């Protein structure tokens, strides 16, 4: 697949709406020889070869490509992937497939040739060179009629796509998403984050403005939120989920079984960072943390942290894993600051920088902790990580809270003791940058 001059292989992919909005046709042409096989991570691709139109059968998600094939074509039916208004919400695994075996250096150019009024949004920015991680990791592409706006935040462009009822103008997109990104950039303003695709889809599942959020990295940084179009603007301005998800955008991609680490950092920082930029008060920050840490404890001991994290998608014990991870983040942050060897902030920034140098790979939590240790000149991160992963007992979070001068009152209310040994550390954790 590599030419005699050593240039990496190149594919050219074109997306047309041939019976708009009912059918999308995806044509992928190969510069040079085709790959011997391609593999899908989702539904088995229904491909046909060009020239000739020969159907190419899939076996276990793998399609053999005959020699001499110039292009392959697939059609995506709206009934499978489109919303009621004819807007396609395509996961990468729905329509993108990769060479089998993987080819280092593969380049894929994409072009959307769509009717008037129909447009596309992809993690890599639609037309142009596709980030090859789109063929390996999940992400979303939107094709159809939707509202779109750009929000500029300290060097980052949020490319916000709103479709269906989520296009309602009363949703305070700039205040809500811009505020969350400003909070996260306060943690690490040095890491380049030029663009984030943000998708808003309607959901009527509860009184909160934001029902659910997730981040994906396939093809570029992307975040998807379900929002209640009928919620008042205040519900969005008080939201924590955007800060949580945007924190993930700075992190490396972690393996699923290490969810405790990435989710724990994001859960801790969703409160701390909002306090730092004044979105919530320090009192509310510590009350929110106390409430969540207690919820993680109340979920009960069943297994070690390593076992809980590895089985989370099956057991759905998200509260236990997320807040156990947040408890670890809090105790590590306090330990580093007490020892004078740095802070979780400094460790996280070092991890972000290291991950940015190899964005195409996933990380283990133990590897991330070693990277943090190396940056700070300590072994505390790895040592605390090993202890946490082997433990069946939830951390005693009340001990560091007492040292910080966070006093639990009635319910989840807190008060501050400025005479506590680490009261200055408490103030530093939520201090405005």
Descriptive notes:
The chain is an alpha+beta fold. The chain folds into three domains: 10-80 and 94-115, no CATH class; 146-249, Neutral Protease Domain 2 (Neutral Protease, domain 2, Orthogonal Bundle), CATH 1.10.390.10; 251-433. It contains 15 helices and 23 strands. It has a seven-stranded mixed sheet with strand order 5-4-8-2-1-11-13. It has a five-stranded mixed sheet with strand order 15-16-17-19-18, covered by helices on one side. Strands 6-7-3-10 form a four-stranded antiparallel sheet. The N and C termini lie far apart (51 Å). The mean pLDDT is 91.
Summarize it.
This protein has 433 residues and is of the alpha+beta class. The protein contains 15 helices and 23 strands. It has a 7-stranded mixed sheet with strand order 5-4-8-2-1-11-13.
Which tags fit this structure?
433 residues; alpha+beta; Neutral Protease, domain 2; 3 domains; 7-stranded mixed sheet
Main sheet makeup: 7 strands, mixed
Give the termini separation: 51 Å
The share of residues in extended strands comes to 25-35%
Backbone structural class: alpha+beta
The number of distinct helices, counting runs of at least 4 residues, comes to: 15
Q: What is the number of independent domains? A: 3
- How much helicity do the residues have? 25-40%
Work out the radius of gyration. Answer: 24 Å
How many β strands by DSSP? 23
Shape: globular
Identify low-pLDDT runs: none
Q: What is the average of the pLDDT values?
A: 91
Strand order of the largest sheet: 5-4-8-2-1-11-13
């Amino acid at each position: 697949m590599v030419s005699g001059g050593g240039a990496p292989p190149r594919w050219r992919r074109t997306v047309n709406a041939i019976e708009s909005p009912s059918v999308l046709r995806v044509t992928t042409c190969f510069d040079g020889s085709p790959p011997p096989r391609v593999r899908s991570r989702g539904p088995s691709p229904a491909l046909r070869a060009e020239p000739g139109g020969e159907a190419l059968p899939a076996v276990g998600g793998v399609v053999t490509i005959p020699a001499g094939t110039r292009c392959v074509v697939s059609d995506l039916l709206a009934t499978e992937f489109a919303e009621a208004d004819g807007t396609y919400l395509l996961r990468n695994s729905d329509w993108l497939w990769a060479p089998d075996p993987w080819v280092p250096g593969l380049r894929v150019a994409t072009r959307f040739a769509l009717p008037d009024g129909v447009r596309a949004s992809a993690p890599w920015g639609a037309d142009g060179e596709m980030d090859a991680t789109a063929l390996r990791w999940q992400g979303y592409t939107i094709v159809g009629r939707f509202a779109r706006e750009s929000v500029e935040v300290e060097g980052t462009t949020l490319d916000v796509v709103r479709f269906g009822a989520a296009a309602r103008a009363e949703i305070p997109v700039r205040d809500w998403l811009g505020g969350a990104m400003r909070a996260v950039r306060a943690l690490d303003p040095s890491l380049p984050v030029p663009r984030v695709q943000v998708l808003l889809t309607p959901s009527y599942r509860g009184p909160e403005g934001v029902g659910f959020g997730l981040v994906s990295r396939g093809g570029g940084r992307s975040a998807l939120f379900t929002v209640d179009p009928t919620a008042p603007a205040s519900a969005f301005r008080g939201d924590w989920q955007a800060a949580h998800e945007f924190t993930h955008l700075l992190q490396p991609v972690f393996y699923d079984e290490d969810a405790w680490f990435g989710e724990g950092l994001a859960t801790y920082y969703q409160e701390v960072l909002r306090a730092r930029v004044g979105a919530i008060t320090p009192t509310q920050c510590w009350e929110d943390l106390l409430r969540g840490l207690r919820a993680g404890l109340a979920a009960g001991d069943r297994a070690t942290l390593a076992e809980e994290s590895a089985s989370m998608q099956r057991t759905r014990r998200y509260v236990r894993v997320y807040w156990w991870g947040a408890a670890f983040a809090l105790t590590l942050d306090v330990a580093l600051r007490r020892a004078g060897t740095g802070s979780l902030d400094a460790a996280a920034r070092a991890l972000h920088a290291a991950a940015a140098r190899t964005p195409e790979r996933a990380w283990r939590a133990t590897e991330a902790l070693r990277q943090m240790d190396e940056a700070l000149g300590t072994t505390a991160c790895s040592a605390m990580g090993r202890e946490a992963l082997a433990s069946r007992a939830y951390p005693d979070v009340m001990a560091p809270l007492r040292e910080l001068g966070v006093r639990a009152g009635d319910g989840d209310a807190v008060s501050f003791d400025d005479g506590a040994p680490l009261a200055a550390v408490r103030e530093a954790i939520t201090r405005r940058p």
